[in-house]
TrEMBL record, chain A:
Family designation: Belongs to the Integrator subunit 4 family.
InterPro entries assigned to the protein according to its UniProt record, in alphabetical order: ARM-like, ARM-type_fold, INTS4_8HBD, INTS4_C
SUPFAM superfamilies in the cross-refs: ARM repeat (SSF48371)
Pfam families: HEAT_2, INTS4_8HBD, INTS4_C, PDS5
GO biological process: snRNA processing
Subunit structure: Component of the Integrator complex, composed of core subunits INTS1, INTS2, INTS3, INTS4, INTS5, INTS6, INTS7, INTS8, INTS9/RC74, INTS10, INTS11/CPSF3L, INTS12, INTS13, INTS14 and INTS15. The core complex associates with protein phosphatase 2A subunits PPP2CA and PPP2R1A, to form the Integrator-PP2A (INTAC) complex. INTS4 is part of the RNA endonuclease subcomplex, composed of INTS4, INTS9, INTS11 and inositol hexakisphosphate (InsP6). Interacts with BRAT1; interaction is required for the assembly of the RNA endonuclease subcomplex.
Domain INTS4 8 helical bundle: 591-794
Keywords from the named record: Acetylation, Cytoplasm, Isopeptide bond, Nucleus, Repeat, Ubl conjugation
Protein name as it appears in the record: Integrator complex subunit 4
Localization terms from the record: Cytoplasm; Nucleus
GO cellular component, one term: cytoplasm
Record domain Integrator complex subunit 4/Protein SIEL C-terminal Ig-like: where: 803-945
Automatic annotation (TrEMBL), chain B:
Lineage: Eukaryota, Metazoa, Chordata, Craniata, Vertebrata
Organism: Buteo japonicus
Domain Metallo-beta-lactamase: residue ranges: 8-216
Keyword set includes Zinc-finger: no
Family of this protein: Belongs to the metallo-beta-lactamase superfamily. RNA-metabolizing metallo-beta-lactamase-like family. INTS11 subfamily.
SUPFAM superfamilies noted in UniProt: Metallo-hydrolase/oxidoreductase
Main subcellular location: cytoplasm
Database matches in PANTHER family: CLEAVAGE AND POLYADENYLATION SPECIFICITY FACTOR FAMILY MEMBER, INTEGRATOR COMPLEX SUBUNIT 11
Biological process, per Gene Ontology: snRNA processing
The keyword Metal-binding is assigned to this record: yes
CDD domains the record matches: INTS11-like_MBL-fold
Classification via InterPro entries: Beta_Casp, INTS11-like_MBL-fold, IntS11_C, MBL, Metallo-B-lactamas, RibonucZ/Hydroxyglut_hydro, RMMBL
This protein's name: Integrator complex subunit 11
One Pfam family of this chain: Lactamase_B_6
Amino acid sequence: SELHLSKLRLTKPSKSAALHVDLCKATSPADALQYLLQFARKPVEVESVEGVVRILLEHYYKENDASVRLKIASLLGLLSKTAGFSPDCIMDDAINTLQNEKSHQVLAQLLDTLLVIGTKLTENPSVRMRLVEVACKHLTDSSHGVRNKCLQLIGCLGPVEKGVAKEVESQAAKDVQKIIGDHFNDQDPRVRTAAIKAMLQLHERGLKLQQAIYSQACKLLADDYEQVRSAAVQLIWVLSQLYPESIVPIPSSNEEIRLVDDAFGKICHMVSDGSWVVRVQAAKLLGSMQQVSSHFLEQTLDKKLMSDLRRKRTAHERAKELYSSGEFSSGRKWGDDAPKEEIDTGAVNLIESGACGAFVHGLEDEMYEVRIAAVEALCMLAQSSPSFAEKCLDFLVDMFNDEIEEVRLQSIHTMRKISNNITLREDQLDTVLAVLEDSSRDIREALHELLCCTNVSTKEGIHLALVELLKNLTKYPTDRESIWKCLKFLGSRHPTLVLPLVPELLSTHPFFDTPEPDMDDPAYIAVLVLIFNAAKSCPTMPALFSDHTFRHYAYLRDSLSHLVPPLRLPGRKLVSSPVSPSITPHEDPSQQFLHQSLERVYNLQHLDPQGIQELLEFTIRDLQRLGELQSELAGMADFTATYLQCQLLLIKALQEKLWNVAAPLYLKQNALASAAAKQILEETYKMEFMYSGVESRQVVIIHHMRLQAKALQLIVTARTTRGVEPLFGMCEKFLQEVDSFQRCFISELPHMQGSFVDKLLDLMPRLVTSKPSEVVKILQTTLRQSTFLHLPLPEQLHRATANIIEPTGESDNPLRFTSGLVVALDVDATLEHVQDPQGTVKVQVLYPDGQAQLIHPKPADFRNPGPGRHRLITQVYLSHTAWTEPCQIEVRLLLAYNSNRSKASAKILKSTWSESLEALPQSENGIEGTIPFSKPVKVYIMPKPARR
Amino acid sequence: MVLPAALTALLTLVLSAALLQFCLKRRFPDFSYITQNGRLTDFLDCVIISHFHLDHCGALPYFSEMVGYDGPIYMTHPTKAICPILLEDYRKITVDKKGETNFFTSQMIKDCMKKVVAVHLHQTVQVDEELEIKAYYAGHVLGAAMFQIKVGCESVVYTGDYNMTPDRHLGAAWIDKCRPDLLISESTYATTIRDSKRCRERDFLKKVHETVERGGKVLIPVFALGRAQELCILLETFWERMNLKAPIYFSTGLTEKANHYYKLFITWTNQKIRKTFVQRNMFEFKHIKAFDRAFADNPGPMVVFATPGMLHAGQSLQIFRKWAGNEKNMVIMPGYCVQGTVGHKILSGQRKLEMEGRQILEVKMQVEYMSFSAHADAKGIMQLIRQAEPRNVLLVHGEAKKMEFLKQKIEQEFHVSCYMPANGETTTIFTNPSIPVDISLGLLKRETAIGLLPDVKKPKLMHGTLIMKDNSFRLVSPEQALKELGLAEHQLRFTCRVHIQDPRKEHETVLRVYNHLKGVLKDYSVQHLPDGSITVESILIQATAHSEDQGTKVLLVSWTYQDEELGSYLTSLLKKGLPQSTS
């Protein structure tokens, strides 16, 4: 590495020198520009940045052409961004360049550079103060670009802490808010926008904005330019969150209202703005204004209807009345909607500054972006206000008929989210159920999810839902699973409503025996799922069952155990005793068991190796069994079992007996140890990437285990290879890894006393200077002597799982296609607890000839039906040369990982000055790999030879 | 404001009133209102047609070919494409079926269309040296536009018919903040605020769906263009979504041709159609097929769109007679029906209809009414006014009583004056035209450099010379003006005497004045010169004792006219006297 360093030192000055030579050579501005452009493509090392900057500055003063100066200014900014370079040494020079600059564009660029420098030196208040002062000086510039940048600079660097501003007695200590606020009335809309954005920036940085800005911001809402209005809406929202309870006067009256209500009204008004960008912005922000009074909130859904000046009831009100009067919508009369009472002309306010009808407008907007934003806002507001939820129901139901599928889907999801707060009326349920016929699978499944958590008020409602679901089932048989699941929840939620329906549903008769229905009929199973789940909390129900129903129950309980609950039936014993949900996790006996068994392992350290091994083996077995029994603890149990397994492998591989055997037995021993090392590595990657909820505490332990496995690998290699040369490299690499481990987890090291890495770091000075053979020896003893680290468990831990629903792998009919052409295979899978599935989940296809194909599904193929769950519906293209007979291929899902993406290295990888910069050392040994996490499914295919 | 533009707008208004008058008394409007015996071409700069509905373009061939007009006619591209089809159909019905004479011929329609200039949305068309027009999207029907008509800095926006709520095939009307002097708006629904469109659509679909599921037939009488396309799209997408199989038919003829243009003018439709047409043009109906007379007797469910919309004649009436007897069937009236038509009768609940030849038809089928109107409601009109921010509003195309209400609301909420002239009434609107003046860049830069940045709240004082020459106005610096006009510079000074009661010596008085001014005028340079005078910037102040009364001092204040502002301020300050302090 010494050689390497000296090489660097040689090249460093030459870089800036070359630039200098180039720039001097340039005969015309165009030439110089070319050189600069070329120069900008290459990265510059941290050490040579300052030199390059000096040379650039020198040329800056000499240069007459504004475009070249502009490029130099932009390069200065780019260079100051270089990681590891502290730009305070060039700040004075950069400020000085501003003094004599005439071109507005260059000035703006220079200010941008100062902004970059400032953001790198945010820790230094005096630097910030100075830059802000410079910016204030240039605020009077006649060019909008310069003013723009100045405001940006003030926004990013202006003093946020009150105390500091007082200490530093200078011009800039003036109130930054006042300075920025003065530019709210600038003549240029771009500057006005920049001023508002700067204000928002200050807010984000933690400055408490003054309430006085509110009235200024309100005026900006009427600006001619959409970007100003859009930013102003944001500012008003911020202020409404800061001062919700302040009182503001209503203009042209003596009344006063809360600020948050006033702001809410104003933002509502912007929902009917002329520009759709502003409308989207306004609609989005409405959702987060939860402090608004319910009186204002409910106005948003009210649009006073009238016809020829007479008050008219909305269709929603009419539907409600019809329902409450017990009469179902006849809709047969003309003038059903005939206007009722006369309206006092003076009282009608056609455009209210208030919130009136904001959501009615938003939901009817011509742009679907606005409609989606409105639906989302509606959802958020309804979640916090049950009475509002009740009111907005009709509007959401209406959105189920939107022309854009995304909007329909969004409104169904929204409805599901607020369904705890509401009970559907029968006519609403009717409209909701009508959507079940939709041809889009996403819509239908979202609707099933919705029905799972819907409250229905009458038994007719349940019956209606069942009938519609069965209709859905006959029309789209593929929805089977989803419909069954839906009925399961519907049944368990409404046992008393299902009870009176049972005889009808099972078509039992008090006197006659009815024919036994077909057990394989999905519709019949659907009905049974509904009834059995209702029967769980309704002990009188089984009395209504006929004999075959009991038989069917027994069958379904076995075949569809996830849908059919255990029932207390006459003459039957309840098998498992379910844990009552009221027990908190800590009191849970199985949780206790888990912790006790781990405790046992961690405490018994000084047992003889044989004893340790046996204890580990038993504990692993216990844990695995526990995971199978207790699904909520499965993640935790598997995770710890894997860790113990790693430890067990390590202990086995290190057994002294084996290492001292005679030379002929080396071979077998080596194979065992290297296999163990390999497996440990694999298991650690699984532990790190396959579980959601893993915290940094666990990551350290996992990395530590990996380090041990690598040490083991090194030892094994040292014993098998002849010669020292290859070992040199390996040792160095290993030491580098120890080093990077130390850098990543420096804060965790104190908790790792007595561990492998702890001991290793103590020995580090010795290791660096030792020969490889010695290193290996040290490693071996350290490995043996180090203690077994305690693995702390996080609150929640879930293992990523995948289940391929389609293809089912049951088909005996081969999928025939012409060789050389492609055939599309529909893949449908559910994923649980996978973080960022779009980036990590891949589909693997294995052909009988050993050829493997890896497919990256499109991001749009992943749906997110609920927290922690994903659904992959995609098409996989298969192709192969001709076969003589059909054969099976395997399809499975893989979880891809990259050790660089891990939480540990994310800390180190900071943004660099350009993408072209050479990869950092960490990424060189970044290991990419895949973990299979679904059962493989076999698909029968047959590529036929092409016909000529 | 008497402008050619005003005339043009007036003409479009006259054209828009065409159908009403045609229904009542005569066929075409009386264009002599405009000319008072002269050639139309001399009086009009151009004619603008806002959209293809016959009440907006029905009299066009008569006007251009029979009365005689040779100037340009402006319309949007879709209007230009569809308009001749409708005119031809209109001519056929009037001449061929009703046998009227003295009507325009097919050739006249062609000749008239040759005079048409097509415009794009937001394209500014320079009609002549002064007059320019610009089209904005209006919703309502395909190709409907609102027009801004502008002369110099005065402008009028004429809306035609417009719709502020989007529907299944068109977007909402939109206009920028063009701040016209006058906005002429239709006001069909001046006193109505409509319910959400979605409810109506849902009801409509539900009814159709239920009837079809029962095995019944649905008849929807429509007019060929406009609403028909909207309903087709609505049903088409619903059939698609719900995977329905029952056939939908559309009576052929006029619609087929027009549908062709709907497919072409995708840019004029709503977001959904515009975004998805690459995959599939929504107007290429999969489920909707051409109707044949024989299909009406087919068994099983079906949906039929048939013309005309009020069930007064033609195919829709024929089908109605066939299906009326079965209670499983349904007729849905999607719009307004004129009194006396079959449509109106069944909507008002008549169950026994007397047909031609004393035949009694018993109506057992269900009758539904559903309003799908494409005019802006009161809220929509207000919204448009809010968007455009006009200085005056003029309401047309509505009933006087209803307009009165809206007028009151507009004046109350926007504080602009609103007019609603009756037919033949003249309204005079006063405007504040701004007069453009060219300023030399040097002067502008010099003047803006003095003082602070421009502030919206305070008007800024500027010094320069206004040169009015050859119908143009120029603002130049005084030096340049002198040079251009070949004049020598004269200096103008104002001198003013201010009497002050002060028994002290002259120089003491001067010192007092000096201290006082220095205290008040902090931002100016106040100097005390050795000769005993004071200067404030270029203003000179000298003090002498009054020749008669030694206790009175006379302050001589002298300033150039450039410093008039400061000078007069100073004198008024001095007239107030000096503060009583002894210092």
